[in-house]
Give the backbone structure.
Amino acid sequence: MPKMNLSHFEAAILFALFSSVVLGVITKRTDTERIRYGVRCFLYFLAALIGLGWLMHFGHG
Amino acid sequence: MANTPTKAPAVPSPPLSKWAAPVVLGWLIPGGGHFLLKKNGRGALLLVSVLITFLLGLMMRGAMFQPQTGDILTTIIYCGGFLGDLASGLLYLLATWLGYSQPDMAGHVHDYGTKFLVAAGLMNVLAMVDAYEIAIGKKD
């Protein structure tokens, strides 16, 4: 089994991507709604990731 | 006269035969319940997502949780983590039987891997709930 060394950012992006796909697939009723919801979830994940990252950056001084 | 609360009529639970097979198959093979219910596109997306998340966890040398009891936090973390790992179905069983279960090691990448393994199981739980809802006709 090959070993992977991902940074925190890369791991979080991959987690966000696959979680968004699953949330999109199981939540809505039509394909258009599913795609829209999946993309929206992914963007929310990204916003939280970058926002919290900057918050911690400024919090640490 | 005092108002007596009226009881809502009990809704009969759907028969086990209707949903047991998709839910059990969905546990064993991520997206398997959807394939059984002829929702192949959605099943494939769920299979790919859960499988890649699980494989990333293994490749980052994540550890599988073993149930442990002690104080409340230890019990919640280790028993909850074990259930999360177990929810991946065959992926978890095969990884354990084939010796891919890693010992718990210090290091941030191992830690991400451990979380990815649990996240794959939790995604599969969501897929099983979806398969249940489709099987009982609550959802298309």
Summary: Residues 23-60 of chain A form one domain.
